[in-house]
Amino acid sequence: MSYRAVARKDFQDAVRSRWIWVLSALFIVVFAGPALLRFTLGIGLGDTNEATGITVLFIQFMKEGTAVLVPIIAIVVGYASITRERESGTLKLLLSLPHSRGDVVLGKVLGRSAVVALPIAIGFLVAGLVLIPATSGGAVSRFVAFALLTVVLGVVFVGLAVGISAASESDRQAMVGSVGLFLLTSLFWGTAAGRIASALNEYAGVTVQQQYLVELGLKVVNPVAAYKTLVDSLVYASQMEARQQLFGFFLFFDPAAAEALGDELPVVFTDPVIAALLALWFVVPVYVGMTVFERVDL
Description:
- By secondary structure, the protein is mainly alpha-helical.
- It has helices at residues 2-16, 19-40, 56-78, 83-88, 90-96, 101-131, 137-167, 171-203, 208-220, 223-235, 239-244, 255-261, 271-295, and strands at residues 248-249, 252-253.
- The relative contact order is 0.13.
- It has two domains: 2-186 and 278-295, no CATH class; 187-275, no CATH class.
- A two-stranded antiparallel sheet has the order 1-2.
- A hairpin with a 2-residue loop joins β1 and β2 (252-253).
- It is built from 13 helices and two strands; from the N terminus they run αααααααααααββαα.
């Protein structure tokens, strides 16, 4: 298929430009470095408690960093994927070949996704070689699931960046849109969700329990928060406990939120629903970007 040719060329260009090797080295340092601390500094990452797993501290520590680093790298890799070729004129040459505009967008998404996913996988592989020999079977499955979720996060933000690039007229416009979305999801979304829920409690008469449910609903729509809470589901005893972590930071959370949410988790906040929401952050921007790109005059 034509989109496969675009994806293959995009990936090969990244290999030739050494993007793959630079990112791989970065992720090896980022992921394997904390794992090596277990041996060099004697840090105990090996709690064998069934609810947490042997890699819980590693996962909890790395989750906060990957939730920032991976989206940034995905945006850098993807934001100019189409606009740069559009500004340089090579896009018209590409479209003169048997490629449709949809093939170009889909190929760019797949090629850039591979550019991000492969180095992440390599980084986790090296970290796994350090951690897994000292872990149990259950901990290995959690570690692998954490790696897969991190790859998914990277692919989601590649889709976002390429979708924005496809709908933009210039590199500058694509960069502003991508960076703005990153700042919104990483810095401002949680605060806005809390203020909206508090305002509903204060001015609309919703109960405290409803306030926290509204805040939770607003938070899990955010792709970064969705990723974090799915990772938390790997290391906490229940999905409810994982959702409660969205009301705190690292190993600390708001006890008022835990009390208000109770013990029964509504279906809309379960892992499959949140995973579907995360997937939509990939599908919708790519589709919208492709639709806009099909209609623009190059």
